[in-house]
Amino acid sequence: MSNPQAVTDHLMVELRDVNKWYGEFHVLKNINLQVKQGEKIVICGPSGSGKSTMIRCINRLEEHQKGDIIVNDVPLTEDLKNIELVRKDVGMVFQHFNLFPHLTVLENCVLAPIWVKKLPRKEAEKQAMELLERVKIPDQALKYPGQLSGGQQQRVAIARSLCMNPDVMLFDEPTSALDPEMIKEVLDVMVELAHEGMTMLCVTHEMGFAKTVADRVIFMDGGQIVEENEPHEFFENPQHERTQLFLSQILQH
Amino acid sequence: MSSDMSNSGHKPDGGSAQPKAPPANQPKFWNDPKKRSLLFQTLLLAVLGYFFYSVVDNTLTNLEQRGITTGFDFLTQEAGFGIAMSLIEYTEASSYGATFFVGLLNTVLIAAMGIIAATILGFLIGIARLSDNWLISKISAVYIEIFRNIPLLLQIFFWYFAVLRTLPHPRQSIEFFSSFLNNRGLIVPAPVAEDGFGIVIFGFFAALVGSWFMSRWAKKRQEDTGQQFPIFWASVGLILGVPLLLFLVSGMPMVLEHPELKGFNFRGGITVIPELIALWLALSIYTAAFIAETVRAGILAVSHGQTEAASALGLPKAKTLRFIVIPQALRVIIPPLTSQYLNLTKNSSLATAIGYPDLVNVFAGTTLNQTGQAIEVIAMTMAVYLTLSLVTSMFMNWYNARIQLTER
Questions:
Q1: CATH C-level class of A11-98+167-251
Q2: CA–CA dist A202, A193 (Å, integer)
Q3: PROSITE patterns from the entry (chain A) (predicted)?
Q4: Is this structure's pTM higher than 0.95?
Q5: How far is CA B136 from CA B142, B148, B355, in A?
Q6: pLDDT cut 90: percent of chain B above it
Q7: Of A98, A110, A125, which to mutate for an interface test with B (greatest number of B Cβ within 10 Å)?
Q8: Of A59, A72, A102, which to mutate for an interface test with B (greatest number of B Cβ within 10 Å)?
Q9: Number of helical (H) and strand (E) elements in chain B, helices listed first
């Protein structure tokens, strides 16, 4: 039996010399990154360093202007067909959950499977209920997002993404909008997901999470990847001055 | 404290061990909010009561002195004047009651036509205003700024005097699809049903029922197999196709009565008077500008995160609009849209300015002048507008309540 945690050689996400500008502002400068199937990457850095922009380029919520992004062997270009293919494979969880407030939790989860993957509603609902059970809120299925707590909403958002059976999950600061006591319930779900072998790219400052699950930690500053290392080395022995300063500031308290 | 206790002791019903002693710091009655508000409300009610009593009393006394009889008997009297356009049978010999209904129907007609056209135009322009295409978005911006900033009355005059009245005489009519456009209005062929047309109407209703069953079947099939069915276009095809097919099969049991030029005017066909066209154009174009802004605000109110989440799930743009953006935008759009519908209905009374025979024109105008029953006529007219508006807003409130978010 294969170990689900095993990292294979298949390249899931590849960024080659990716550059992006907002008008005059150069947000991403020559980003190179390879993520293998099953790898878990944690991305940190000061605000405005381009970390969110980078992962938002991977499912084309943002357009890059130079370089190549290849997801699961599909190159991201102007071609709408390719964008559709990539988005089917890539799930995303946002800082502010972005659940659809006019739909129930269950409807949030089955909308895309029914209309994008053309699943029968019965099957989609069955799968959604299984995933809601996995994030431990099956009893909230018929409620509306506005009736849930922040932590519950974020767990629904994770389940909603998983309903599309993605190969890669992107997390854009999933716990920054949560009250302290709700952070744990979301992180627990993410750790479990990591143990099941999901390929993950997480923008987060939860250093405990990084130490537990990450294969690599990436530090970004000024639109560049400054440092990249496995977590133990990264925290114990940061090479760059900028990284040392950043770590000293976030670990001070 | 001690004074309060002794006070309560003096009351005849109070014992020495009074269980419900008044609170120690009971305020003076003019400082007690409850008693104070009771006092003011009683005073206000008394003043209002006296006001209405004196108005009614005054009016009755005045009417009596001038020898004017009150009551609604005049409604059965012969009106003695013609009306340029009526949806029901009406002649000069008809009663004032008939005049009322002619005016009412004409008002309802222009309001309904205006609401439909303004809604379609307003939604199109509101969405165009948000287009990524520079030209389209600027054209709709210019449209909105021009038409909502010019007084409506002026726009009615523009369409009536500057556009429709300058059209050629009937002899030089502009002809298209066997219809004629001239300064007396638009004359179109009148459809006249022959024997056997009933089957076409039956087919139409059968198709309506059929498409309802079809949508249920499509939903069931999706639930079981996941296969999608283009229910919207299939229903459109069914509802248009079935009656058309029956019409052709049954030997086209309908003839068009073509208008013909006889002397200086047309005979036959249906004449749409220029006053109706001018009023309809002005009301729809003016109100559409406001609806467009409402629609734009509604769509912008849906946060960008919603479309991003839909994109991240792989939903295409059209489905994102249909399932995510429009349902949420409608919550914001409906209440101000209701106000626009009410405005349009009430603004239709400007018809009087160009002589479109609406309720205000034929009833609160001509009828009032001829009978002098000012109180009854104005009260009836006001009641009509009040009823129309209340019915509209009741319907819209019901719809709004249906689509509101559940929170907590």
A1: alpha beta
A2: 12
A3: ABC_TRANSPORTER_1, ABC_TRANSPORTER_2
A4: no
A5: 10, 18, 36
A6: 50
A7: A98
A8: A102
A9: 14, 8
The confidence band for B5, taking pLDDT boundaries of 50, 70 and 90, is very low
- Lowest-confidence region among A249-253, B38-42, B344-348, B396-400: A249-253
The residue whose two tokens read 């609902």 is A125
A102 vs B contacts (CB less than 8 Å): 327-328, 331, 403, 405
CATH for B96-189+272-404 is: 1.10.3720.10
Nearest CB to A146; choose among B315, B403, B406: B406
At residue B245, φ and ψ (nearest 5 deg) are: -60, -45
Tell me the average pLDDT across B380-393. 93
Decide if pLDDT at B199 tops 60: yes
In angstroms, the Cα distances linking A234 to A44, A158, A200, A217, A219 are: 11, 28, 18, 7, 9
Of B308, B403, B408, the CB nearest to A61: B308
What per-residue confidence (pLDDT) applies to B310?
A: 96
- As a whole number of angstroms, the distance between CA B395 and CA B390 comes to 9
- Report which DSSP code applies to A33: E
Instruction: Say if the Cβ atoms of A115 and B312 lie within 8 Å.
Output: no
Confidence of residue A153 (pLDDT cuts 50, 70, 90): very high
Average pLDDT over residues B1-8: 44
Judge whether residue B21 has pLDDT over 70: no
Of B225, B305, B311, the CB nearest to A120: B225
Chain B closest-CA separation from residue A120 CA (Å): 3
Please give the average per-residue pLDDT across B334-362, as a whole number.
93
Q: How far apart are CA B5 and CA B290, in angstroms?
A: 67
Q: DSSP assignment, residue A215?
A: S
pLDDT tops 50 at residue B7: no
Are A101 and B328 an interchain contact pair (Cβ–Cβ within 8 Å)?
yes
Question: A84 and B314: CB-CB below 8 Å?
Answer: yes
Could you tell me the residue ranges of all domains in chain A?
Answer: 11-98+167-251
Tell me, what DSSP letter sits at residue A70? E
* Cα B50 from chain centre: 36
Contacts of A161 in chain B (CB under 8 A): 312-313
User: Are the Cβ atoms of B313 and A114 closer than 8 angstroms?
Assistant: no
Q: How far apart are CA A124 and CA A118, in angstroms?
A: 9
Residue type, B162: A
> Which chain A residues are closer than 8 Å to B401 by Cβ?
none
Per the rule left: phi > 0, alpha: psi between -120 and 50, beta: everything else, B268 is left
Given B303, B313, B405, which is nearest A102 (Cβ)? Answer: B405
Classify residue B192 by burial, with Cβ atoms within 10 Å: 0-12, 13-18, 19+.
exposed
Give residue ranges of A with CB < 8 Å to any B CB.
59-61, 84, 87-88, 90-92, 94, 96, 98-102, 111-112, 114-116, 118-123, 144, 146-147, 160-161, 164
* Mean pLDDT value of segment A166-191: 93
